[in-house]
């Protein structure tokens, strides 16, 4: 009976999420893929950030990492997670154990919040530019205001090892994936747990995002991505037999799925259950990567946390080609 009640609660939560779904923007793929705009490469290098000018005075923690001759310039050490909205880029740097905020308009960076980011597994930016941070060690999600003040924490007995977070903007509900319990916990905006979702196809959840078909769950153990519909029912899987070490994921509004594979340092692109492109390889060159641990999309750009290359790569991405037969006369 308890399990049935939980399912009912989740179904109500999920219907609300479905009603408030917003379409994600941006996309990415291989330069050799045929799903880009006619005459344009699907993925085009736009910008690479290896660091940025600091907006604030250097602290002792950062002073030793500035580059010679570049006073106030902070070089990245190991960017692991990235979240973007408009001109603001939030970046977790595991080397500094800090969350950094880069303002693209001012081309300057600052430390975000007085918070030791030692076990951050995921971040997401809200419409008001506040930030949700998944703290695996604390078994909570922390909500910080735009100026870095802690507003609220989201925790529950249903969270043992949280690894990813998705925000439903219209309702303010928060979806948190837990790798140990292998389920997703829904919270209301006040931090109250509402119910859980559990896929029958996952052995564990290591990353999560949302897209047109629902939630996209990365399962490293099963080496696949499981897609769960907005009704809470498993829809399909992708990447089985193709992915070797899936790490990060992003989905665009055209339902193209981008998954970083740590085995060969590539980003593999799927449409439905079909692999349509992959690009990358282990190198420090453009379009090459060395352990991608974070992906994010904003408008027509794909942001890639190229961790061991100590940089953030940003790519402009093209729209898919509409077949001639599908065009309206």
List the helices and strands and how they pair.
Blueprint: H1 2-19, E1 43-49, E2 51-54, H2 60-63, E3 73-75, E4 79-85, E5 88-93, E6 98-103, E7 108-112, E8 120-125, E9 131-135, E10 140-144, E11 150-154, E12 162-168, E13 173-178, E14 183-187, E15 193-197, E16 207-211, E17 214-219, E18 224-228, E19 234-238, E20 246-251, E21 256-261, E22 266-271, E23 274-280, E24 292-298, E25 301-306, E26 311-317
How would you describe this structure to a colleague?
The chain is mainly beta. It has one domain: Neuraminidase (6 Propeller). The chain has helices at residues 2-19, 60-63; strands at residues 43-49, 51-54, 73-75, 79-85, 88-93, 98-103, 108-112, 120-125, 131-135, 140-144, 150-154, 162-168, 173-178, 183-187, 193-197, 207-211, 214-219, 224-228, 234-238, 246-251, 256-261, 266-271, 274-280, 292-298, 301-306, 311-317. The strands form six sheets. It has a six-stranded mixed beta sheet with strand order 3-2-7-6-5-4, with no helix packed on it. The protein is globular. The relative contact order is 0.18. The model is unreliable at 1-36 (pLDDT under 50).
């Amino acid at each position: 009976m308890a399990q049935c009640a939980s399912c009912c609660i989740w179904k109500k939560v999920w219907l609300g999420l479905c009603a408030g779904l917003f379409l994600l923007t941006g996309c990415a793929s291989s330069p050799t893929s045929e799903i880009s705009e006619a005459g344009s490469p699907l993925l085009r290098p736009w910008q690479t950030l290896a660091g940025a000018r600091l907006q604030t005075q250097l602290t002792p923690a950062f002073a030793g990492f500035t580059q010679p001759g570049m006073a106030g310039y902070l070089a990245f050490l190991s960017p692991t997670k990235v979240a973007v909205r408009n001109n603001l880029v939030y970046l977790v740097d595991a080397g500094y154990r800090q969350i950094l905020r880069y303002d693209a308009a001012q081309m300057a960076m600052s430390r975000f919040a007085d918070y030791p980011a030692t076990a951050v597994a995921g971040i997401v930016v809200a419409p008001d530019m506040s930030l949700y941070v998944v703290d695996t060690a604390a078994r909570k999600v922390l909500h910080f205001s735009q100026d870095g003040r802690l507003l609220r924490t989201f925790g529950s007995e249903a969270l043992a090892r949280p690894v990813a977070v998705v925000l439903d903007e219209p309702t303010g509900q928060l979806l948190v994936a837990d790798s140990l319990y292998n389920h997703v916990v829904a919270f209301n905006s006040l931090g109250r747990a509402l119910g859980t979702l559990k896929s029958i196809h996952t052995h564990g959840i290591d990353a999560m995002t949302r897209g047109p078909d629902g939630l996209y769950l990365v399962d490293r153990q099963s080496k696949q991505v499981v897609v769960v519909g907005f009704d809470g029912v498993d829809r399909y899987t992708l990447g089985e037999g193709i992915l070797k070490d899936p790490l990060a994921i992003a989905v665009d509004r055209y339902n193209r799925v981008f998954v970083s594979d740590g085995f060969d340092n590539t980003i593999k692109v799927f449409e439905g259950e079909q692999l349509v492109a992959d690009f990358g390889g282990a190198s420090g060159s453009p379009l090459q990567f060395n352990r991608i641990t974070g992906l994010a999309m904003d408008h027509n750009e794909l942001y890639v946390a190229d961790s061991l290359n100590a940089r953030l790569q940003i790519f402009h991405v093209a729209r898919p080609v509409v077949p001639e037969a599908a065009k309206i006369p």
